[in-house]
């Protein structure tokens, strides 16, 4: 490694290598329909050495976990954030369901691999702020902040459990519209006063 590189260049190179590795991991896991992809194959697809993989991620599970979270950060969260104030509960839920349906092969492989628990926890953490904002938008000052946080955590965890089962066991092809309706029915049964404006 050239230690004389200016700091910003080194940072750009690190970001590029990490991004290339995560994108290669998504592509190979999707192509092969399994998380049992070797670090050598991922490194080769990303055009970096295995040493770089270990430097950035340490092991395959960490790389796959980060690739899964990165995919959600890049492809799912921006759409939710950009249109959050204008989106109905159905539109928000449908956006989440479409994302997981569109990337089903990748997520299914990871959700049945050794990194499944960590990925599930990570995805819940990513979606928790969205659910918290939705609960705050609906309930406003009618609930204490702690109750809003608890309700958002409950919905995020329960929703993640249903989504995981749907992605792993659902019939081909996944139907995001029907699953959205199913999630909204469950939510409205738990919180009947929320109606169509709930997350």
Question: Please, could you describe this protein's structure?
Answer:
The protein has two domains: 7-59, Arc Repressor Mutant, subunit A (Orthogonal Bundle), CATH 1.10.10; 76-197, no CATH class. The protein has 199 residues and is mostly helical. The protein is built from ten helices and no strands. The chain is globular and about 55 Å long.
Which features would summarize this protein structure in a list?
disordered N terminus; 10 helices; mainly alpha; 199 residues; 2 domains; Arc Repressor Mutant, subunit A; 0% strand
In short:
The protein is built from ten helices and no strands. The chain is mainly α. The protein folds into two domains: 7-59, Orthogonal Bundle (Arc Repressor Mutant, subunit A), CATH 1.10.10; 76-197, no CATH class.
Outline the fold blueprint:
Layout: H1 7-32, H2 39-46, H3 50-57, H4 60-75, H5 77-82, H6 89-102, H7 104-111, H8 116-139, H9 145-169, H10 176-190
Helix pairs in contact: 1-2, 1-4, 1-7, 4-8, 6-10, 8-9
| Count of strand segments | 0
Percent helix range: over 70%
Query: Which structural class fits the helix and strand makeup?
Result: mainly alpha
Major β-sheet annotation = none
Number of helices: 10
Order of helices and strands: HHHHHHHHHH
Name the beta content range.
under 5%
């Amino acid at each position: 490694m050239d230690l004389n590189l200016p700091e910003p260049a080194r940072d750009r190179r690190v970001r590029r290598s990490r991004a290339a590795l995560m994108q290669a991991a998504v592509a190979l896991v999707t192509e092969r329909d399994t998380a049992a992809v070797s670090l050598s194959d991922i490194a080769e697809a990303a055009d970096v050495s295995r040493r770089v993989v270990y430097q950035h991620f340490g092991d395959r599970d960490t790389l796959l976990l980060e690739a899964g979270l990165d995919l959600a950060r890049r492809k799912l969260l921006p759409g939710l954030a950009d249109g959050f104030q204008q989106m109905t509960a159905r539109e928000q839920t449908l956006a989440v369901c479409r994302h997981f349906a569109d990337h089903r092969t990748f997520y299914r492989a990871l959700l049945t691999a050794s990194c499944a628990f960590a990925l599930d926890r990570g995805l819940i953490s990513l979606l928790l702020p969205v659910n918290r904002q939705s609960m705050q938008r609906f309930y406003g000052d009618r609930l204490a902040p702690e109750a809003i946080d608890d309700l958002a955590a409950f919905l995020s965890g329960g929703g993640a459990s249903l989504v995981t089962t749907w992605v792993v066991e659902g019939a081909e092809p996944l139907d995001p519209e029907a699953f959205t309706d199913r999630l909204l029915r469950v939510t409205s049964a738990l919180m009947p006063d929320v109606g169509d404006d709930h997350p």
